[in-house]
Design a protein that fits this description.
Layout lengths: L9 H10 L7 H14 L2 H9 L4 H10 L5 E10 L13 E4 L9 E8 L2 E10 L4 E7 L12 E4 L8 E5 L2 H9 L9 E7 L3 E7 L5 E12 L9
Antiparallel strand pairs: 1-2, 1-10, 2-3, 3-4, 4-5, 5-6, 7-8, 8-9, 9-10
Protein name: Secreted protein
Keywords: Signal
Length: about 230
């Protein structure tokens, strides 16, 4: 079987996979068996199988892109140490929406809604060396927040399941300028188990760990568009 190229869009992934199907037998019987197999294979399963043959960054994007157009509810599974004052996330509905899928092999946009706050969007971009995560923060009128477009690039290949994003120099300068000194050691991470769970994580060497886990088995109603989009 020929190797599947490492930078395919989802439609091309499906096409490449179908081109690699091996059919035994001959004539109408073989064609009928091939048609039946194609009908039985769910699109998300097909993409998952294709993703297994990709480089880890591309496989990770492909797994997340299976859920384009869907939204999922989340829950906080780690928040250490506990905040000293009011927490922006506790007790509020947490919804992720895989929304920006115009070119899913290169970029995905995933708004993260916290209650009525629609200021946050995760931007995942394919780079020449891996993946880039940026946090697009907007005000309700669509204007940029003072702290926006921060994040980092992966330092290694990662896996199809987990990608880590150490804070980049641009973000460190932003945090220092805005007096957010604790954030200059941030590492973000994302994990996905297809059809099971998605995890967003923030950690710091001093022991800070924040994780939100989303249930991919139960899509919810789509939220309104994020602010500014």
């Amino acid at each position: 079987m020929n190797a599947i190229p490492a930078r395919l869009s989802l439609p091309l992934l499906l096409l490449a996979l179908s081109a690699c199907t091996v059919v035994t037998g001959s004539g109408d019987d073989a064609a009928a068996r091939a048609d039946a197999a194609a009908e039985e294979a769910a699109p998300d399963e097909t993409v998952a199988r294709a993703a297994d043959g990709l480089a880890p960054p591309d496989a990770f994007l492909a797994r997340l892109a299976q859920h384009c157009g869907q939204a999922f509810a989340g829950r906080i599974v780690a928040n250490e140490p506990a905040p000293a004052g009011p927490d922006d996330f506790e007790g509020k509905p947490l919804i992720m929406h895989v929304r920006g899928c115009d070119d899913p092999a290169r970029e995905l946009q995933v708004p993260f809604h916290v209650g009525d706050d629609r200021s946050r969007t995760w931007l995942l971009t394919r780079t020449d060396t891996g993946l880039r995560l940026k946090h697009d923060h907007r005000h309700e009128d669509g204007s940029d927040d003072a702290v926006t477009m921060y994040g980092g690039d992966t330092a290694g290949a990662g896996t199809a399941q987990r990608q880590e994003f150490p804070v980049d120099a641009e973000s460190i300068a932003l945090f220092e300028r805005e007096g957010l000194d604790a954030s200059v050691t941030n590492t973000w991470a994302m994990e996905i188990e297809p059809e099971r769970r998605f995890l967003y994580e923030l950690s710091r060497p001093g022991g800070r760990l924040f994780q939100v886990e989303f249930d991919l088995t139960a899509p919810v109603d789509l939220p309104a568009a994020p602010w500014g989009h």
